[in-house]
Amino acid sequence: MNGNEHITISLATAAAVLAPWLWSIHPAWLIASLFGVFIGALAPDADANDSAIFHTRVPGGRGKRLVILPVFGYGIRYLIYYPISLPFILLCGERGMPRHRGVLHSLIGVVLMTALLGFYAWVIGAIVFAIPWDMGFTIFLLGFLGGAIGHLLEDSCTKSGVAWLFPLSDHRTRGKIVTGSGDQRPAIYAGAMCAAAFGLAAAGPAGLVPADLYPWTGVVAACILWLLFLITARIGR
């Protein structure tokens, strides 16, 4: 999928998951989590030269610029992607060489990417600027990981697919969506997830869901919707 689709679907998914917490979560933490999802939704494509994360213009932003995107893009590429590729190259030879939808498009890859990003954040924040690590950093990283995993789910709906268990397995989970073809399914997925987010945000104050179950309804709804998305994308071998 393209950058705009990754951003909209991932943020919509995050909105559905966080909707039950909207009335209780600290606004700064909400912003940190959504910003993490925004960057994470584009981060796996740091392995492609034409990725949206290398450009200052927000995908679909009609002229708006976000300078932080290429900062993260080139930082992830040269300080994270290439370093974590080295053990894959040593273990797998040519299979581990940097390529699009390779290391960064695997579950192991996105976990390592998140861990190394957290390490850099700790070094720069705590050691260089003497800024103590707080919950905001942790929430950003969790959002980043969630956005990156969402990216893999979204690319699993496309014909090129994703090798989730690389390097343990080269099997790719594939769908029938062709990136850039004008297929309306990505837009429908984002719209359905947004509708769920609005519904869940309203359900709590209206007392439509038991209080002890309400915080987890976003996770359940997102999982159910993603199962439907994968089915409608006609996932297969």
Explain what you see.
By secondary structure, the protein is mostly helical. The chain has seven helices and no strands. The model has no long low-confidence stretch (mean pLDDT 91).
A few lines on this structure:
The protein is mostly helical and 237 residues long.
**What portion of residues belong to β-strands?**
under 5%
The main pleated sheet reads as: none
Q: Roughly how many Å apart are the termini?
A: 19 Å
Radius of gyration: 18 Å
Average predicted local confidence, pLDDT: 91
Classification by helices and strands: mainly alpha
Number of strands: 0
Shape: globular
* Proportion of helical residues: 55-70%
Count of helical segments? Answer: 7
Low-confidence stretches at least 5 residues in length (pLDDT < 50)? Answer: none
- Which series of helices and strands comes N to C? HHHHHHH
Chart the SSEs and their pairings.
Blueprint: H1 3-18, H2 27-42, H3 68-92, H4 107-128, H5 135-156, H6 185-203, H7 217-232
Helix pairs in contact: 1-2, 1-5, 1-6, 1-7, 2-5, 3-4, 4-5, 6-7
List keywords for this structure.
7 helices, mainly alpha, 237 residues
